[in-house]
Design a protein that fits this description.
203 residues; alpha+beta; 2 domains; 5 strands
């Protein structure tokens, strides 16, 4: 319903940012990852948002990047993961770290977030990895430069990066076409970071 809010940052507190737009202050619940990216009070800011409607309240969640918003949406689609847990994970881990952990089945990394125990972390890793597999992406495949359609090549770093980007909501074809622009010898997390920068706000 509300894709983004742009205006003046008028208030900050842990996990909360208030953006004034046209005289109306929008209270956005945020991750610490987003808060680390915010400018000083009084500066202009844009947050990509997700409106969560409950029986007793409406909450607006705001994120500095579309990648973080996409990661939040994927996380909260997992059974047992509410918005607060999603924020906790993104307060501890960057979107590319979450995506890489899921793509590689590394549930332990997810437990670094407050309130995420071993069982919940395993469920997140399993459900999201299954979702990526249904999209036809394999973390063991990779893509040679210039092969946007996803033709396997020798290196698996690019394949893991494509799988991780699928966790963030990108389609396998668009993820593969962007990852193929970079050197597949780069670390997987760096490939994810470069690809997210290249794709910008296309999510």
């Amino acid at each position: 319903m509300i894709y983004s809010v742009s205006g003046t940052l008028v208030h900050l507190e842990p996990n909360v940012a208030v953006v004034e737009c046209g005289g109306v202050g929008f209270k956005c619940l945020t991750s610490m990852g987003t808060q680390r990216r915010l400018p000083a009070i009084g500066a202009q800011v844009k947050l990509y948002t997700k409106l969560n409607v409950r029986e007793d309240a409406m909450e607006l969640f705001g994120f500095a990047t579309t990648a973080e918003l996409g990661c939040f949406n994927m996380l909260t689609a997992v059974s047992g993961v509410g918005p607060r847990v999603g924020l906790a994970i993104l307060s501890e881990l960057a979107p590319e770290q979450v995506a890489l952990a899921v793509a590689s089945g590394d549930a332990k990394t997810l437990t670094r977030a407050s309130g995420v125990g071993v069982k919940l972390a395993q469920r997140i890793a399993l459900e999201l990895k299954d979702k990526v597999k249904k999209m036809g992406v394999s973390g063991d495949a990779s893509f040679a430069p210039g092969q946007a359609g996803g033709v396997p090549s020798a290196s698996d770093n690019a394949g893991k990066a494509v799988s991780a980007l699928a966790v963030l909501g990108y389609t396998p074809s668009e993820a593969a076409s962007v990852v193929a622009k970079f050197d597949s010898a780069l670390p997987t997390e760096e490939l994810i970071r470069l690809s997210l920068r290249e794709m910008g706000s296309r999510l």
